[in-house]
Recover the amino acids of this structure.
């Protein structure tokens, strides 16, 4: 007996509202669910919605799409849907309306065409808590089942936001499952962990125009279970294309030369459906060079959804940067003052003397790492368990 499982992730219903892209998420999702109509089971690994409190219009459209599904649907929440423990999130709302089965830190076992399939789901939690929550939930495969673990996290080396580093590595995932699935990351990945398939479907819609989005197609995975396991990526044909290009600029370049570079690139893009285009200008320019981004965008607005980012520095600004770097050398006394304040506050809270390491994290603006380090080294068990239980 062959069973086909569709894994459709990060549809972000309601994203880009009020823009010319507001229908993209719905059109792409309809195409994905249509192409999955002959599957026997659908798994949604989080961020079905783009917001924690969807608008009525988003509720209506999402239910319209799901009402056409005649097979079991199992879902977890993503970071865009997470709400406080005393409130339900949008995915739970759809479960109460009987559109799907929602799981978080628990599992569901289904009989699909005579094949026993067990799915353990862990919805999104802050990255600094993810490894502890995974350990606490302790997902285990069920004997006699085809076992699937579904998550929605950054899992190293697959990181959504470098400023929010993961606490879970691929090898930290528990062994024994037949298939590992992860949402959150917006480009497709197919690899292995513990000798079994590890899949990230990617998002069905573009939410950020960057290099990764430009290099990878939108779509979803279909996993076919039979005498052997067959995995294929199903590309969405109607998804809006993404282009990303960086241009290096030097102080020797003239404004006319810079504009010519940009326009030659933009003139080479010709798609029937208006594409998303991101141009980044990097380097140093002469003082007074005015790159009129609004003028360029206006010229191409009928053909492209264009954004232009500047990472250029004028010659005069170099002097100011040097001044700031010189001032940074005088930061020692400020650090010492901050260290003393932190030390006194931690003593009042009866927290062990970890302030030197924690202060380094705080100075760098890395609050999540400070909390993670504090919890992992604290002798105060109640402090540690309270933080973890909040996300279960």
């Amino acid at each position: 007996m062959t069973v086909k499982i569709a894994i459709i992730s990060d549809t972000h219903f309601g994203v880009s509202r009020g823009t010319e892209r507001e229908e993209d998420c719905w059109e792409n999702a309809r195409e994905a669910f249509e192409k999955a109509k002959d599957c026997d089971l659908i798994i949604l690994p989080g961020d079905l919605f783009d917001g924690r409190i969807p608008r009525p219009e988003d509720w209506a459209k999402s239910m319209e799409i799901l009402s056409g599904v005649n097979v079991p649907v199992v879902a977890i929440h993503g970071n865009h849907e997470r709400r406080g423990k005393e409130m339900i999130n949008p995915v739970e709302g759809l479960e109460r309306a009987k559109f799907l089965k929602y799981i978080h830190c628990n599992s569901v076992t289904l009989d699909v065409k005579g094949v026993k399939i067990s799915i353990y789901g862990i919805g999104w939690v802050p990255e600094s808590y993810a490894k502890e929550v995974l350990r606490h939930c302790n997902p285990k495969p069920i004997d006699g089942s085809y076992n699937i673990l579904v998550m929605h996290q950054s899992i190293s080396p697959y990181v959504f936001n470098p400023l929010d580093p993961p606490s879970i590595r691929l090898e930290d995932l528990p062994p024994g499952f037949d298939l590992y699935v992860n949402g959150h990351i917006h480009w497709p990945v197919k690899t292995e962990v513990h000798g079994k398939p590890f899949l990230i479907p990617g998002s069905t819609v573009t939410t950020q125009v960057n290099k990764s989005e430009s290099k990878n197609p939108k779509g979803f995975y279909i996993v076919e279970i039979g005498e052997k396991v067959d995995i294929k990526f199903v590309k969405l044909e109607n998804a809006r294309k993404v282009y990303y290009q960086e241009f290096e600029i030097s102080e020797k370049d003239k404004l006319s030369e810079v504009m010519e570079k940009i326009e030659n690139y933009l003139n080479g893009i010709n798609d029937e459906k208006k594409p998303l285009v991101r141009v980044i200008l990097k380097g140093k320019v002469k003082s007074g060079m005015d790159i009129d981004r609004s003028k360029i965008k206006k010229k191409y607005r009928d053909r492209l959804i264009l954004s232009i980012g500047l990472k250029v520095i004028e010659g005069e600004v170099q002097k100011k940067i040097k001044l700031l770097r010189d001032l940074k050398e005088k930061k020692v006394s400020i650090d010492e003052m901050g260290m003393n304040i932190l030390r006194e506050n931690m003593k009042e809270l009866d927290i062990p003397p970890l302030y030197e390491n924690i202060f380094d994290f705080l100075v760098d603006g890395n609050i999540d790492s400070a909390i993670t380090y504090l919890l992992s080294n604290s002798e105060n068990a109640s402090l540690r368990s309270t933080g973890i239980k909040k996300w279960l």
Observations:
- DSSP finds twelve helices and 17 strands in the chain.
- Residues 327-389 form one domain.
